[in-house]
Amino acid sequence: MTTFAIVHGAGDVGWSWHLVAEALQAEGHTVIAPDLPTEDESKDLTDWASTVVDALPSTSDVVVVGHSFGGLVAPLVAAEINASALVLVTAMLPRPGEAPGDWWTNTGYTDSGLEDQFWHDVPPHLAEESQKRERDMSETAMSKPWPLDAMPAVPTHFILCTEDRFFTPEFMRRVVADRLGVESVELAAGHCAQLSKPTELAALLATYAA
To answer: What transmembrane ranges does the database entry give (predicted)?
Structure first.
């Protein structure tokens, strides 16, 4: 079966994906979702990617999944292991040489002005636990240019969350068209779909298994 290598977002931890992992594992897949060294100023995005690669039991038949800020890291993993597929979930999409800190201006991002942009559709007990596990982000990761010359040459898919209050669907549709040029699959969920719609998200991810 397929191995899913999940790259969590900024300030997050692998725990956020435990419900998706359970659903995929119930279908016989292997799932890894390591905690990235997001607070370590000595580490950059390449080191974050190495954390994921090092956690893999095998580099054969791997689908790499990147969520939110993890969209800048997941392509590095996919390129390193020649992944079977790359799946980006309401994720930031990089350009070669672009520093993550510049992404917001370059894409024309504006705050939606909506309240509770992350957990509005997450069950309260999961939202509370997720907030307890939040971590800081290193400046190193934000300031270094994205290191690849292009997105990796692997099948690439985008899952767009239509109830996302952080990366709104209107904004993300434009960014995906501009930077990725693929047709998104849409999921009725907020930014943290891995906690609000884990079963539905796992079912979508499973369709990308070899």
So the answer is: none
pLDDT at 67 over 80: yes
SS3 158: strand
pTM of the model: 0.97
Q: What is d(CA 41, CA 172) in angstroms, rounded to the nearest whole number? A: 29
Whole-number Å distance between alpha carbons of 154 and 40: 30
Q: Strand (E) positions, the chain?
A: 3-7, 30-32, 62-67, 85-89, 156-161, 185-187
- Residue 72 carries which DSSP code? G
Confidence category of residue 146, pLDDT binned at 50, 70, 90: very high
With both helix axes pointing from N to C terminus, report the angle between 74-81 and 45-55 in degrees, rounded to the nearest 10: 50
